[in-house]
């Protein structure tokens, strides 16, 4: 079985950017700090150590106290992203046996790989929220287009939510001392995904 993106899916993919930094309205977030976060999102990558150092220097209070812990948590999740995503993938495969087999919702393999890649990107987006201290880190418009894209591609939403929940569980295990602080960022995205159709 071959898999080909529809023209509609190709149209929706670039619009399905789910991160927004619009909630960062405090004066200290003006200008360069937000631009640095935006650049990472534009490039589809996690924040580098250089990005984190730049943001910490630009935004008063982030280099110490809770802000410093948030930046440290974002870096820790970045550094452990491969293991966290692998655990989420394993949880989906355990909860949905046969999902990657012929007739399964994530068959052929290219469909499954796209979903695992989405887990990597979901964790990346969550780290932006954590680093900036903004639990409202998503774009309503981007989520709308992602919902349409998932409908178009017949993505199994229950499996994706299971994967997001597994990302949360494994991330909290990685950072037990900060579990209460970072859990709401995962909960925010999980809640948004739960209302997809």
Secondary structure topology:
Layout: H1 7-12, H2 32-42, H3 49-58, H4 65-79, H5 81-95, H6 109-132, H7 140-153, H8 157-174, H9 179-194
Helix pairs in contact: 2-3, 4-6, 5-6, 5-8, 6-8, 6-9, 8-9
Strand and helix order: HHHHHHHHH
Question: How many strand units?
Answer: 0
The share of residues in helices is 55-70%
User: What is the total number of structural domains?
Assistant: 1
The CATH homologous superfamily:
Phycocyanins
Question: What does this 3D model show about the protein?
Answer:
With 197 residues, this protein is an all-alpha fold. The chain has one domain (19-194): Phycocyanins (Globin-like, Orthogonal Bundle), CATH 1.10.490.20. It contains nine helices and no strands. It has helices at residues 7-12, 32-42, 49-58, 65-79, 81-95, 109-132, 140-153, 157-174, 179-194. α5 crosses α8, α6 (109-132) packs across α9 and α8 runs antiparallel to α9. The chain starts with 6 loop residues before the first helix and ends with a helix. The relative contact order is 0.16. The mean pLDDT is 93.
